[in-house]
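Intended use. Records like the one below are meant for learning the mapping from a protein sequence to its folded structure. Do not use them to infer anything beyond what is encoded.
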Amino acid sequence: MEGLLDSVLRDVLTRVGGFDRCVAEFIRVTNRLLPPRVFLRIVPELMRGSRTAAGVPVRAQLLGSDPACMADNAARLAEMGSDGVDLNFGCPAKVVNRHGGGAVLLKDPEQLQRIVEAVRGAVPPDIVVSAKMRLGFEHDRDAQLCALAIETGGASELVVHARTKADGYRPPAYWHRVADVRSVLKIPVVANGEIWTVGDARRCLLESGASALMLGRGAVADPTLAWQVRQSLSWPRPAGMAAGSLRGGDWPSLLPHLFHFWQGVSERVEARARAGRLKQWLYYLRRSSPQAQIAYQELRTVVHPEDVARWLALQRSRAMPQAACEPMLLG
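Structure written out for the chain above:
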C-alpha cells in the first residue's frame, strides 16, 4: 500500500501485534539494477535482519515488467537478507499500469510466467518467491490462467486480491473467485480484499477456502484487527509474539501508538508531509474509533509539524495527567 503502510506504520502495527509477516511497499523496477540505498529507503528493516522492531518478518516487493531486470534486483534483495521476494501483479494505479507494471500484466499470462521464472532462477533456493495478483484487469475470466502461470513460473505462495483492476477498491470483494483460483493450484493461496471486521474475515475464509488472510486497509483502520481475527479463530500465537494490549476503538490505549507513529514520521518524513501522514492514518482510524473522528476534524486544517506536536502533547496530558510535566520528544 504505497504511501500508507510504510516502515513507520509497519513498526506501529506489528508492535500492536497479531501479524505473522509483512509485505513492504513495492519497489519500482524499470531498466536498471537499483542501488542498496533505494531498497533501504523503502525497506529499512533490511538493516535489522528483515524484521520490524517487534520481530515480525518483512518481505520486500518488486514491481516491474522486465524479467531480466526484475531478476537482477531480486538477486540483490536476496543478498541484502530480505525475507523472501514478493512480486506485484495487482497494483491498479494508472501511472503504474501505463508503464507496464502491476495489474496490467494480468493481460499477458505468458509474461507473468517469464517474470516469475527469471526471479526464481536468480535467487537461492531457500529464498521464498511469492506473488500478489488481482482477479484480472478488465474482467476476471483469466484469473485461473494467470494464477497457473505464476505457479508454473516457480512462485511458492500467491495472494489474491478478490477484485479486478476495473473494480478498484469498490465493494464487494469476490471471495468465491479466490476459491476458483485455489482449485487449480498446488501452492498456498492467501485471500485479500475488503476485510474490515472479524465477520468479514470469517466470511472470506469460508467463501475462499483459503487458510490465511492478508489484511490491508482493515488493519490500518483497526490496528487490533489481526489480534481479533486470530483470537476469534483460535489461531495459535507464533513463538515470541506478545499478546496485544490494545483494545479495538479504545482511544486512551491507542494514543501511545499515535505518539510513536508521529515520532517515526518526524524522523523519516520530510517536514511538509508529516501532518498529512498523521491525518491520513486518523482518516482510516475513524472507522473504529469515534475519538479518531474528533481528532481528524481538529487536525484537518493543520499543516505545520509544530502544531501537530502541540496537539499530541495536549492529548497526552489529558489522557495521562500524571505525566503532563514530563518531557516529550515528538519533533
